[in-house]
Design goal:
Number of helices: 4
Distance between the termini: 57 Å
Structural class: mainly alpha
Number of domains: 1
Shape: elongated
Number of strands: 0
Mean pLDDT: 92
Helix content: over 70%
Low-confidence stretches: none
Radius of gyration: 20 Å
Strand content: under 5%
Length: 104
């Protein structure tokens, strides 16, 4: 799998994530951050295409690397915003607790 294929897979994934977030929670922080992440990966793809067309100039290579870091930060932020809030109890632990209260 090449760098280019992974880039297009990430582009498609973030497009789907943005659409889903806007449908489920329009106007939410998650939807806004998913849109930002998609815009950043789109910019990253354009910079990558320019990089190839211009025969890999050093300044553009550095910019492409910096954009990659920013894209991953945006993805991590989107993930953090999408996580459920509050305590998370596993279903197994909850079932055991209920079973213990019934038998006691």
């Amino acid at each position: 799998v090449t760098h280019r294929i992974l880039a297009f897979l990430l582009f498609g994934h973030l497009l789907g994530m943005m659409i889903a977030a806007k449908k489920r929670e329009p106007g939410s922080d998650v939807a806004r951050m998913a849109t930002i992440a998609f815009a950043l990966v789109t910019t990253q793809l354009l910079v990558g295409a320019a990089l190839v067309e211009m025969r890999l100039p050093m300044g553009l290579r550095s910019f492409h690397q910096a954009m990659g870091t920013i894209v991953w930060i945006a993805i991590a932020t989107t993930h953090a915003l999408a996580r459920p809030r509050g305590p998370r109890v596993s279903l197994i632990a909850e079932a055991r607790r209920q079973e213990a209260s019934v038998t006691a």
